[in-house]
């Protein structure tokens, strides 16, 4: 509004009215952003950073994250399965070289960390054994 030539004295009452009417609600906006990022498979660390860049307060961000009770461990596992099909690295393209397996595991760890998951969640996701769910 300042860029359009309005004075601060004129802007303040309008913003107060919008906030009182519920048109401007940081808490609701933060909760919307949290749900949106969870749908994209992002972890809590990345969500905090993304919302902070929108200019919302830390208290507002934490309230939105705590209001949305989500299992971050399961989300990390789902993200790993979606990306790699088999999250647990046992061999790399027919090779059982320890060096190649270690490099592949490090690559997967970096990916999940970049998606906003902590080390505990990443290790849970990568220790997942897909054969354990399919015991018939």
From TrEMBL:
Gene3D superfamilies per record: Winged helix-like DNA-binding domain superfamily/Winged helix DNA-binding domain
Keyword Cytoplasm: yes
Record family assignment: Belongs to the RecX family.
UniProt domain RecX second three-helical: residue ranges: 25-65
Species in which this protein is naturally found: Shewanella bicestrii
One Gene Ontology cellular component annotation held by this UniProt entry: cytoplasm
UniProt feature coiled coil, ranges: none
Subcellular locations according to the entry: Cytoplasm
Main location as per UniProt: cytoplasm
Source organism superkingdom: Bacteria
Keyword Acetylation attached: no
Cross-referenced InterPro entries: RecX_HTH_2nd (IPR053924), Regulatory_RecX (IPR003783), WH-like_DNA-bd_sf (IPR036388)
Pfam families in UniProt: RecX_HTH2
GO biological process, one term: regulation of DNA repair
Protein name: Regulatory protein RecX
Keywords assigned: Cytoplasm
């Amino acid at each position: 509004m300042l860029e359009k030539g309005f004075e601060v004295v004129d802007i303040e009452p309008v913003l107060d009215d919008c906030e009182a009417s519920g048109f401007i609600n940081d808490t609701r906006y933060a909760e919307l952003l949290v749900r949106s990022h969870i749908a994209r498979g992002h972890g809590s660390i990345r969500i905090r950073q993304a919302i902070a860049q929108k200019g919302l307060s830390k208290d507002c961000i934490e309230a939105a994250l705590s209001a949305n009770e989500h299992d971050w461990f399961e989300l990390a596992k789902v993200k790993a399965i979606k990306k790699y099909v088999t999250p647990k690295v046992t061999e790399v393209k027919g090779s059982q070289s320890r060096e190649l397996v270690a490099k592949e595991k490090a690559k997967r760890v970096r990916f999940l960390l970049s998606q906003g998951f902590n080390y505990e969640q990443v290790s849970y996701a990568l220790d997942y054994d897909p054969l354990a769910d399919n015991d018939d």
